[in-house]
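Justification of computing resources. Each target in the renewal requires a structure prediction run like the one illustrated here; the chain below, 318 residues long, is used simply to show the kind of job we budget for.
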Amino acid sequence: MWYIKAREETLEEFGKSPEERSIGELIESAVVIVDKHAGPTSHQITQWTKEIFNAKKAGHAGTLDPQVTGVLPVALNDATKAMIVLMGLDKEYVGVMHLHKEVSEGVLRQAMQKFVGEIIQVPPKRSAVARRPRRKRVYVFDIVEMEGKDVLFYVKCEAGVYVRKLVHDLGQALGIGAHMTELRRTKAGHFDEKQAKPLIEIRDAYEIWKSEGDESMLKEILIPIEHAIPHVKKVFVKDTAIAQICNGAPVYASGLVRIQKDIKPGEIVGIFSLKNELIALGIAKMSAKEMYNKSRGIAVRTDRVIMKKDVYPDFRKK
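Resulting structure tokens:
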């Protein structure tokens, strides 16, 4: 899984592992998984989350319609710079559809299977994107329970699939019509319902920390950005390279310590310190094997710097 290019030790006096961060430090670069309730927009939920933590910036990954509930990842402060790798996560939902006429379970299952795999979907009229046909992938579309015209269903799909439209198109294919009455997102990437907390619980955890100094609840809620992106391929660099990277310099092959084996040119990669801190996101300019074999050249072009500039010194000035 890894190419080990150098045996390098990290200097303990600079930086710290994500697990050692204080609550204040976590708020500067963390993701919160909100259990969105029905009614407000995803933007409003994000704004309330921002206000709870007195954050300067906040952004959400994967918009939910106002009446849809469930898993909504919200990035705080510097973690918003990593939104590019949080936006395209696969999603899972459970929902209720109402059929306009009764059909047998067998007929319904057969029709649903036609919407599994690559589908062509035109976004609904009230969507925020252009209404042109788009190719999307549905991995699973299945019945959980059926009672008359009401069907509890499960969907697993790639980002950007409109489940309400999926149900509508299914009704059209059946020739009887159908509409969605309820929907809940149960998973976004590796984030699931077990991690999701309602806003009131998040606010209470913050107030308990501020008033009583008890950070136990907030520690469960604030996910370090490093733990929020396990799907992103990684390279690890020497301590001596970090300050330059934080100033926008690329990652040179000579500064690498450990490289994930399946990196391909053009992919987004996470640039990490030896303490598992996310320094930046970048674009691979070499394959993993080239990064390992070459002693010179740009391995990764730095794209979005996450780490603050003063965490590691510029060793060239010493």
